[in-house]
Amino acid sequence: MEQALSGTHTTRLGFTALVFLLAFTSGFSIMAVELLGGRILAPYFGSSIHVWGSIITVFMVALAIGYLAGGRLSMAGPSLRRYGLFYLLSALALLPIVLAGDAMMEAVFLHIEDPRYGSLLAALALFFVPTVVLGMIAPYSVRLLVRHQHHSGQVAGLLYFVSTLGSALGTLATSFYLVLYFEVDQIMLTLIGLLVAGGALAFACRNLEES
Question: Which of 61, 66, 80, 163 suits a disulfide with 23, CB 3.0-4.6 Å?
Answer without folding.
Answer: 163
